[in-house]
Design brief:
Layout lengths: L39 E2 L6 E2 L3 E5 L5 E5 L7 E4 L21 E7 L2 E7 L16 E5 L2 E5 L4 E6 L2 E5 L4 E3 L1
Parallel strand pairs: 1-8
Antiparallel strand pairs: 2-3, 3-4, 4-5, 5-6, 6-7, 8-9, 9-10, 10-11, 11-12
Amino acid sequence: MGVPTTSADAAQPSSTPATSGTEPQSGSAPTPSIDSAPITPVDPAGYAAPNDQVGWKSPSGNIFCKLGSTAFSSGCQATDAPIPDGADCDKPPFSADEMSKGFFLDPGQVTPMCFNQGAFGVQDAKSLEYNTSISHLGYTCYSRVEAMVCDAGDGHGFVLSMQQATWN
């Protein structure tokens, strides 16, 4: 997934979700519906976490993300987000409302999930400011005002916000 591009109609945002969540869009990872501001890459060293990982939170504090090299060490979760299509949120004694929602990233793959604990929290996590991106170990995530967008490669990725949790 390249840096989200702008269009001549950038002043007219679309309200259509970028993906359906259940039917992958061929050849493209999800992007937020509004792509008007340019993206500035950040140095991942400023977000370093133990075990060759990087971790951050969204400026709103709703989303926490981490990128690592082992299975189930990469992804994002939101305190407040819709349940992603395909996520197993039936985890007694917790209700779906009590869990955070998000995604695991693996090379070329996204797995929707509900979490009963902080899988991607990093101690003293710094905010990844809006309209910036971070890349580490083959993954790239974009912090946009409207969503956190992450690319797992091979056309797979996700969009996560209070309004949407879509993936392909």
